Amino acid sequence: MSDPSYAPTRLVIATRESRLALWQAQHVRERLRALYPDCRVKLLGMTTRGDRILDRTLSKVGGKGLFVKELETALLDGRADLAVHSLKDVPMQLGAEFELACVLQREDPRDAFVSNRYPGLSALPPGAVVGTSSLRREAQIRERHPHLRVRALRGNLDTRLAKLDRGDYDAIVLAASGLMRLGMAERIRACLDSDEVLPAAGQGALGIEIRAGRPELAAWLAPLADADTTACTSAERAVSRTLGGSCQVPLGAYAQREGDTLRLRALVASPDGQRVLRESAAAPLGEAHALGVRVAQALLAAGAEGLLRDLERLVDSDSVQAP
Ligand SMILES: NCc1[nH]cc(CCC(=O)O)c1CC(=O)O
Question: What family is it from (predicted)?
């Protein structure tokens, strides 16, 4: 970017208005300002359907991209140049008019255990009530801790913590990265390692979405990308995409770089934790996407299809919750 005529002069970031979303958008704004000191970077705050619908469980609301659609509209009509998302919330298959311009360096991908009384999942007594907003967490908690009661928990971070504090739950489980970004890391009693609860594809990473066909904009954003995170999340998202998964599926996928190798673990489960399929594989760093497809196919061969089919039925009826 040494030639100033190739630097942007004005960029607008579309963002949701939750505290976490605003933090993430501001983070990207700071990164852009550091790269392009002469560029004015503005935030355009918006409310999405996912933010408005709070009375129903997300898996019932259904519809992919609940948290991104309004932002995409702003990209299309030119009100915004880029949208900052938690990568986890970005649909696996974007519309043809959009592209994922870059994925930023991942923060802690783990889920966090938060409680005012107990130090960790294993310390909870039988019948204790755990709040979580995802079928993935629910399945894995119930698999290992069948004596616990898992209850739906929705709302933004502050709302979820408030529900814990007023005694609705004995503990809650949510993404560690969100708490860390908002300066609430001290609320984390324990981080659940990936053997205990495998994270969601893309958890802890930010993704920047733009309108397709804007190569100059894509080039401006490219320096924000983190190569390792891009490879890892590409493998993780390929699992989910291959399984036709949305955020409403109890699906975990987590990749780590080990030298020149990418190691990927994934699981599909029934929400009650009775059936959990796990697969893992490794591949060279440059074959991230193929690795994801391969692990997904192994899951399918092990019976993931039946699991996902049963799940559709479950979600159509009156049960459980999600992201
Ligand atoms: N589904 C909501 C959502 N989307 C991204 C995050 C956390 C931040 C991240 O994963 O980067 C959260 C909250 C949570 O899962 O507790």
Answer: Belongs to the HMBS family.
Closest ligand 1 atom to residue 160 Cα is 16
Looking at residue 1, what is its pLDDT? 47
CA of 86 to the centre of ligand 1 (A): 7
pLDDT tens per residue across span 131-172: 998 999 999 999 999 999 999 998 889 999 999 999 999 999
Cβ < 6 Å from ligand 1: which residues? 86, 88-89, 174-175, 177-178, 203-204, 323
- pTM, 2 dp: 0.92
Dihedral sign, Cα of residue 116, residue 202, residue 269, residue 51: positive
| Tokens read off for 84 | 């900052």
How much is the CA Rg of the chain, to the nearest whole Å? 19
This complex has an ipTM of 0.93
- Expressed in angstroms and rounded, the spacing between residue 253 Cα and the centre of ligand 1 is 15
In the reported structure, the alpha carbon of residue 178 is separated from the centroid of ligand 1 by a whole-number distance in angstroms of 6
Quote the CA–CA distance of 131 and 193 in Å, as a whole number.
18
Pick the atom of ligand 1 nearest to 247's CA: 1
Instruction: Please report the domains of the chain, with CATH numbers, ordered by start residue.
Output: 1-107+205-225 (3.40.190.10), 111-198 (3.40.190.10), 226-323 (3.30.160.40)
Q: How far apart, in whole angstroms, are the C-alpha atoms of residue 253 and residue 236?
A: 5
